[in-house]
Amino acid sequence: MNINIINEVAEKTGLTEKEMLEVLAVALYKLKKINGVQGGKMIGSSEIEFHGLLGKYGQFVNYDEDDLDTDLDNLRDF
Questions:
Q1: Coil, strand or helix: which one is 19?
Q2: Count of other CB atoms within 10 angstroms of residue 61
Q3: Matching InterPro entries, A to Z (predicted)?
Q4: Up-side HSE of residue 14: CA atoms within 13 Å toward CB?
Q5: How far apart are CA 35 and CA 17, in angstroms?
Q6: Residue 35 φ then ψ, to 5°
Q7: Res 23: pLDDT
Q8: Fewest CB atoms within 10 Å of the CB: 16, 19, 25, 35?
Q9: What is the pLDDT of residue 1?
Q10: What is the DSSP string of 27-78?
Q11: Could you tell me if 29 and 53 are in contact, meaning their C-beta atoms sit under 8 angstroms apart?
Q12: Do residues 36 and 30 touch, judged by C-beta distance below 8 A?
């Protein structure tokens, strides 16, 4: 998929193409439309690097009570 952003909008943001892609990936992650692995792939990095990038944009890793329960169950089974 290709997304075209008109020059007027791109110039107004002052963001580079890479930064625009990061913003899009972080926004999709915040909306829980993608996960960290997919976010990393979008920006050409690893999941860990993507998680590190989240703080730059004021977002935190999506981890809720269900994730904790799953992790605890997995530890018990280990």
A1: helix
A2: 13
A3: UPF0175
A4: 0
A5: 21
A6: -105, 180
A7: 95
A8: 16
A9: 86
A10: HHHHTTSS-HHHHHHHHTS-HHHHHHHHGGGT------HHHHHHHHHHHHH-
A11: no
A12: no
Between helix 17-30 and helix 36-43 the angle, nearest 10°, is 170
The per-residue pLDDT for range 11-48, each reduced to its tens digit, is 999 999 999 999 999 999 999 999 999 999 999 999 99
Report the number of secondary-structure helices (H) and strands (E) in the chain: 5, 0
CB contact at 8 A, 18 and 42: no
Sequence letter at residue 11: E
Question: Residue 35 carries which side chain, given as an amino acid letter?
Answer: N
Type of residue numbered 30: K
Q: What is the DSSP letter of 41?
A: H
Amino acid at 21: L
User: Given this model, what pLDDT does residue 62 score?
Assistant: 80
